[in-house]
Specification:
Length: 159
């Protein structure tokens, strides 16, 4: 009789162990509710008077680099320019495809009053329409001078 009770007790322990192991495996394989963090998207463009609409005769050049942060929905940017016909009087991002003019969507302030220089900043959060246009290459940087109030140099930004 002692032998039978020993096997019965061992059988119950084995069953309990298998149930416990199964539960542990089941709950450790639970799907995570944490979404993957989206990656930043990088953009750049080259400033030129030839890309203004209509084109402008200017020896000024420059570049724009920008990084879109999808978590914050912001655009971090740097404008660099050289040899403008005068000091910049305004600069900003416009919403418009290549070859078209568009509305100002991201104003830029704090730029130096120099014919050559740079400015960096971060936009306010962008709305979904603007994000879609950014991803589609429909935003451009523009630098205005007194000699060219409609814009002296323009840079379409693309990935």
């Amino acid at each position: 009789m002692k032998t039978t009770k020993c096997f019965q007790s061992t059988g119950k322990m084995t069953t309990a162990f298998i149930v416990l192991l199964s539960c542990t495996l089941l709950f450790s394989c639970k799907k995570s509710n944490t979404a993957a963090t989206p990656s930043n998207v990088h953009f750049s463009g080259a400033f030129s008077g030839a890309t203004e609409v209509p084109p402008v005769s200017s020896s000024a050049t420059g570049s724009v680099t920008a990084t879109y942060d999808p978590s914050a929905k912001t655009l971090q940017y740097t404008f660099t320019w050289n040899n403008l016909s005068g000091v910049p009087v305004a600069m900003h991002f416009h919403d418009g495809a290549t070859g078209t003019n568009g509305a100002v969507v991201i104003p830029i302030s704090g730029f130096p009053s120099q014919a050559s220089g740079s400015v960096s900043g971060t936009s306010n959060p962008l709305n979904d329409t603007l994000i879609n246009d950014l991803m589609a290459g429909k935003l451009y940087g523009n630098i205005h001078t007194q000699n060219h109030p409609g814009g002296e140099i323009r840079a379409q930004i693309t990935k």
